[in-house]
Task: inverse folding
């Protein structure tokens, strides 16, 4: 499985797992996102990711999930805290 496949799998998990959504909300919002925390959430679920993988996948996939749309409407653009 390629890393970008892991990103897509993580995004699917986020879309369906309300506990993961709550955890993610604590690391994304108020105009910022903590990439280390997002990567850790994925790693704890057995998915190996990097910030570059997340950014590349989001740049190439222009369709957002319902949860991603909710996050976008709740905040301004999200600069990364720790790249």
Result:
């Amino acid at each position: 499985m390629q890393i970008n496949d892991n990103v897509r799998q993580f995004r699917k998990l986020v879309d369906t797992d309300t506990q993961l959504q709550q955890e993610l909300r604590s690391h994304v919002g108020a105009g910022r996102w903590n990439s280390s925390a997002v990567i850790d959430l994925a790693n704890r679920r057995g998915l190996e990711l990097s910030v570059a993988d997340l950014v590349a996948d989001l740049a190439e996939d222009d369709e957002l999930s319902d949860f991603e749309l909710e996050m976008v409407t709740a905040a301004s653009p999200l600069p990364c805290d720790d790249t």
Remarks:
- The two ends are 25 Å apart (CA to CA).
